[in-house]
Amino acid sequence: MNAPATAAPITAQAFKSDYKPIWCPGCGDYSVLSSFTKAFAKLDLRPENVAVVSGIGCSSRIPAYTNCYGFHGVHGRSLAAASGLKLARPDLTVVVASGDGDGYSIGGNHFLHACRRNVDLTYVVMDNHVYGMTKGQPSPTTEPDWDSKLSPGGTGLRTFHPLVIALAAGANFVARAYSGDPNGTADIIADAIRTPGFSFVEILSPCVTFRPEQREWKRLARPAPVTTTDDAARAARRIMTDDGFNIGVLYKGGRKPYQAPIDEGKNSPSDLEAEFAI
Amino acid sequence: MSTKKSAGKSGKQSTKPGMKPGMKKAKVAAPKKTTAAKRTAAKAVATALPVAKVAARAKAKTAPVARAATKAKAAPVVSASEFMAHAYAMEAEAAERYAEFADSMELHNNREVAELFRKLSRIEQRHADQILEQMGWKQSPVSSANVRWEGAEGPETADSTELHYLMQPYHALQIALHNEKRARDFFAHLAKTTENAGARKGALEMEQDEAEHVRLIEEWLKRTPVPDSNWETDQDPPVLSD
C-alpha cells in the first residue's frame, strides 16, 4: 500500500478570497490582511479550520477578504460571537478582527471581559485613532488635541490605553505591531495564535484619508528594545512609559485558557431540546 | 455555518484630497513621550509646511516621489542559490504589491493607473519567473514569508501608503522609478560586499537588469504627461468632515 501523500504546504494566497478590498488607497488594512493570510500559511492551517470574526468598521471587512469561515457581526460584539464560537467549536482557530472604535468604544466592555475570561482567541485590533468608515470622528485612542471639523480644538479627552488595560484585565498575550511591516506582523499574529488563551495584538494601521499624518508612523515604529516578559507588572511599566511605537510581543503569560466544561451525553440536540421542555 | 459571506456593495471611497503620494515631508522630530507632542510633530510633518518649503511643496504636486531612501538589505547571503531565492522573494513581493495597487485603483475607477500598475506587476512577476527558470526550480526553496529584510519590506516593494485615488500615470511611474533605483542600489551593494563568487555574479547581473529597468522607466516618464499642479483637486470630494 502506498503511503498517504503528504499535503502540500499551504500558501498565503489560499487564504485570500475573490473579493477585492474596498479600503481607501494607501490604507494600512491592506497590509494587515496580507499579514493574516501569511500567518495562517506560516502555521500551515487549513481554511476549513479557521474562522475570522469581526464587528463593524473598515477593519471589520476582513472576513469578506479571507477564504475561511467568517462572521461579519454586530458593532462591538465580535468578541461575544467569537467566544461562543470557540467554546462550541474548540477545534477551530478563531481570530477576531476589530478597530479602535469597534473594539475599544462600542465593544469596550466585551474587550475587558474577553481578557478576563481568557478564552483561546486571537484579538487583532487595527488602530488608526479615528472612526474612518463614518468619516473621521475621534475614537477612544484619538489624541486629545486632534483638531478637525468634527472635533474643533480636539476632544480634550484622555486616550484609552488598550495594551495596559488588556494586561490588567488578564490577557495572556499582549503585542503591538505595525502594518508597514507585514512580515513582522504576520510573525506576531502567528505567535498570538500559537499561544493558548486570549491573545491581544494591537496593530498601528494608518488611516491615510482622515489621518494623513499617520504616514509618518513608518519613521516612528521600531522593534521594542526589550525582550518579551512574563511579568505583567514589568510589561505594564514598559508599556506605560514607551511612546506607543515599540513593536513586538510585550507580554506572554502562562494562564490556562477557559474552556467550556465537558458535559458528556448532554450535547445532542434532543438533550438540549429536553431542557427547554415546558 | 457558511464558508463565505458577501463583501457588500462597494460605495464611493473617500480619500482626503490634501495628502498626495510622495508629498515632500519635513524631517520628523524625535519621538516624544507625550501624546500631544507626538501628534503635533506628526501633524507638522504632514500639514504645516513652513513658508520656505512652499516651493518644494509646489514641486511635490507634480513630481511627487520624495521618499526616504530605504535601507532594506537582505540577511547575510551564504550561497548563490540562497541569493537567488532572496532575489526571487524580492521580485515576487514587488509583483504582489503592484497587483494590490492595481486592484485598489481599479476599484476606485482610476483605470489608467490601474492598468499601469498591472503592467508593472506583470514585469516584476516575469522577472521572478525568470529566476525560477534560470535556477531550474518549480518554486522557490525559501518561502517569501520567511525572508527577512533589514527594512520592513523588500528593496523593490512599493510603499503602500503612497497611493492617492486621483493619482496619474506619472505618479505611478515615479513610484516605480524609486523602487527600481532601490533595487539597483541593493544589488550593487550586495555585489560589492558578498564574499561568494556565485552570489556576486548573480548580484551583478541583477544590478544590470535593474539599471535597465531604471532606464526604461525614465524613458517612459519622458513620454508621460506631467500632471497639473492641482491634480489632486476633486470637484466632487467624497470627504465631508474637513
Q: What can you tell me about this protein's structure?
A:
With 278 residues, chain A is of the alpha/beta class. Chain A has one domain: Thiamin diphosphate (ThDP)-binding fold, Pyr/PP domains (Rossmann fold, 3-Layer(aba) Sandwich), CATH 3.40.50.970. Chain A is built from 10 helices and 8 strands. Chain A has helices at residues 29-42, 62-65, 78-88, 100-106, 108-117, 162-169, 182-194, 217-220, 232-241, 269-275; strands at residues 50-54, 69-72, 93-99, 122-127, 173-178, 199-204, 222-223, 246-252. An 8-stranded mixed β-sheet of chain A has the order 2-1-3-4-6-5-8-7, sandwiched between helices. In chain A, strand 5 (173-178), helix 7 and strand 6 form a beta-alpha-beta unit. The longest helix of chain A is centred in the N-terminal third of the chain and has 14 residues, at 29-42. Chain A is globular and about 60 Å long. The termini of chain A are far apart. Chain B is mainly alpha-helical and 242 residues long. Chain B has a domain at 80-222: Ferritin, CATH 1.20.1260. Chain B contains 6 helices and no strands. Chain B has helices at 35-46, 54-62, 80-107, 111-135, 169-193, 197-222. The longest helix of chain B has 28 residues, at 80-107. The radius of gyration of chain B is 20 Å and the shape is elongated. At the A-B interface, helix 1, helix 2, strand 2, helix 7 and helix 8 of A face helix 1 and helix 3 of B.
Which key phrases capture this entry?
heterodimer, A: 278 residues, alpha/beta, Rossmann fold, 8-stranded mixed sheet, B: 242 residues, mainly alpha, Ferritin, 6 helices, elongated, disordered N terminus
Tell me, briefly, the overall form of chain A: globular
CATH arch. level architecture of chain A = 3-Layer(aba) Sandwich
Query: What structural class do the secondary elements of chain B suggest?
Result: mainly alpha
Low-confidence stretches of chain A: none
Query: What is the distance, rounded to the nearest whole angstrom, between the alpha carbons of the first and last residues of chain B?
Result: 42 Å
Q: Write down the CATH class of the domain at 80-222 in chain B.
A: Mainly Alpha
Radius of gyration of chain B equals: 20 Å
Look at the helices and sheets of chain A and give the structural class: alpha/beta
CATH topology of chain A: Rossmann fold
Query: For the record, what CATH class of chain A applies?
Result: Alpha Beta
Count of discrete alpha- or pi-helical segments spanning 4 or more residues of chain A:
10
Helix content of chain B: 40-55%
Order of helices and strands of chain A: HEHEHEHHEHEHEHEHEH
Order of helices and strands of chain B: HHHHHH
Q: How many strand segments of chain B?
A: 0
Determine the oligomeric state from the structure.
heterodimer
